[in-house]
Design brief:
GO terms for molecular function: snoRNA binding. This protein is mostly helical and 181 residues long. It is built from 7 helices and 2 strands; from the N terminus they run αβαβααααα. The protein has a two-stranded parallel sheet with strand order 1-2. Helix 6 packs across helix 7.
């Protein structure tokens, strides 16, 4: 089956070092096994239920949810470096991915959001200097779309957004909402 899907001159990435010897000696196909391939295999193993029809694949205990290097790095960065590999669950993998994505977007857009916060103070008098980026983004969105023609993204309802902005703005600061909260 391997010969059917590999072209002459191609290198086959394999998930275990012992496969390199077996495939190269028996089939004469050049194989690659290193840290980068292991990261790729980790991702594929965790997506297997979406890639394999019916999701019926038997994984050994060691293959179930090992921790990849990128995940270890992210967890260490946020003080969760003592998490043991056997404690890794699908929820932890998803939460780590969300944490990484959120951090990426804060780094990418944080500076321009702070600039918008300064502009917000100049134009409306709302001092958003001590606000976190979620509160700032919410306030700017509500001021830019006062009639609610924006689409909500994520898990926050419009009422939750209004509460966030109201609490962040403080009692003496005007908010772009008629909600008394």
């Amino acid at each position: 089956m391997i010969r059917r899907f590999i072209c002459p001159g191609q290198t086959l990435a394999v998930g275990k070092q012992e496969y390199v010897t077996i495939i190269q000696s028996n089939l004469g196909i050049k194989c690659l096994w290193n840290a980068e391939v292991m990261e790729l295999m980790w991702g594929l193993n965790n997506l297997k239920e979406h890639l394999v029809p019916d999701g019926k694949s038997e994984l050994s205990k060691e293959d179930c949810l090992p921790m990849c290097e990128g995940m270890k790095f992210t967890l260490n960065k946020y003080g969760f470096g003592d998490l043991k590999p056997e404690m890794v669950t699908r929820s932890i993998i998803e939460a780590t991915g969300l944490l990484y994505e959120t951090d990426y977007h804060v780094r990418k857009h944080g500076e321009s959001m702070r600039y918008a916060g300064k502009h917000l103070k100049e134009t409306s008098g709302i001092n958003a200097e001590d606000w976190d980026l979620l509160k700032l983004a919410t306030a700017i969105m509500m001021l830019c779309y006062p009639n609610g023609e924006y689409k909500l993204v994520g898990n926050l309802s419009e009422a939750d957004l209004t509460v966030h902005v109201s609490h962040a703005a403080g009692p003496s600061t005007p908010v772009a909402s008629s909600d008394p909260e």
